[in-house]
Write a structure and sequence with these properties.
Elements lengths: L3 H15 L2 H7 L5 H8 L8 H11 L13 H16 L2 E5 L6 H11 L3 E5 L6 H12 L10 H13 L5 E5 L6 H14 L4 E6 L2 H11 L5 H7 L5 E2 L5 H10 L5 H11 L3 H12 L1
Parallel strand pairs: 1-4, 1-5, 2-3, 3-4
């Protein structure tokens, strides 16, 4: 782990990018604005080591403390798509193979830009979980305690509508159940033309949606229409991409880079593990 001084220095840059401590805290699950304030003011005595590690994972050297980003084809393509969607308030569905860097790039974009609200979807979510996540990114979760589910949803959507030049990024969108997808339709209807929305998935989502449309499943035509009736497919991982990742993370021997590129077989997760092994 980095020193506390290094973490605080990185945290200051992170807060400046987000605009305020409150905005920065909304990005970090399990971290409050009060905790960030204590860190910035060097009131460290009561802050536990686990909290330092949690904050470090968000603010130091990208997403992982010992990992550097590289401008792979996917990284550049996806970053451009995020910028376009945020600027033009577009809605799009982006697909890519596992291990191409979708999640990493979305985390980096969230960390480095203002008004970016990234949602890590889960197959275990129900409607209540989805609404709670909307409340969290809106910064309203503590104020909605005691409300009914419908009231919470309306409150969360009102909070999102006032976000200026915002973008919502749904990572692993294809994992959501149908009930959460129905809520996504409501979300879209409320924030349309007010903010950008990008969903990230494997190409399974295309199969799921087109089959659902063909079978006339409830809500599927509406969802597919709102996503533009098509998906933007990301470029895969090339040997040159893996070599860029190696170079950025301290593996400079050309033969080792070629070995890692061959062994990773187009999967950056495999490449990451191999790079860490090589460095050790």
């Amino acid at each position: 782990m980095k020193t506390r001084e290094e973490i605080v220095s990185a945290l200051q840059i992170f807060i400046e990018a987000k605009g305020s401590q409150n905005n920065a805290a909304r990005v970090m699950k399990g971290v409050s604005a009060a905790t960030l304030s204590q860190m910035m003011n060097h009131n460290w005595d009561l802050i536990k080591e686990d909290m330092w590690r949690r904050v470090e994972s968000y603010v130091c050297n990208g997403v992982l403390a010992d990992w550097r980003e590289a401008e792979t084809k996917t990284y550049k393509q996806l970053t451009t798509l995020f910028e376009t969607a945020q600027r033009e308030k577009l809605v799009m569905c982006v697909t890519g193979e596992p291990g191409t860097g979708k999640t990493f790039t979305s985390k980096m974009y969230e960390m480095q830009n203002k008004n970016v609200y990234r949602i890590q979807c889960s197959e275990f979510w129900n409607k209540s979980d989805f609404i709670e996540e909307l409340l969290r990114i809106s910064g309203l979760n503590s104020k909605a305690m005691g409300m009914k589910k419908t009231e919470k949803l309306a409150y969360a959507l009102e909070g999102l509508k006032v976000k200026k030049d915002a973008i919502l990024i749904f990572d692993e969108f294809d994992k959501l159940c149908d009930q959460c997808w129905y809520l996504f339709i409501t979300l879209y209807n409320e924030v349309e033309d007010g903010c950008g929305i990008v969903t990230l998935s494997t190409d399974y989502i295309t199969k799921r949606l087109t089959q659902g449309v063909r079978k006339n499943k409830k809500g599927y035509k509406e969802i597919w229409s709102r996503l533009g009736n098509k998906c933007v497919e990301l470029a895969g991982v090339s040997e040159a991409d893996v070599k860029k990742v190696c170079e950025a993370n301290g593996v400079v021997d050309e033969q080792v880079q070629e070995d890692i590129a061959y062994e990773s077989n187009g999967d950056l997760r495999r490449a990451k593990r191999r790079i860490f092994v090589n460095k050790r």
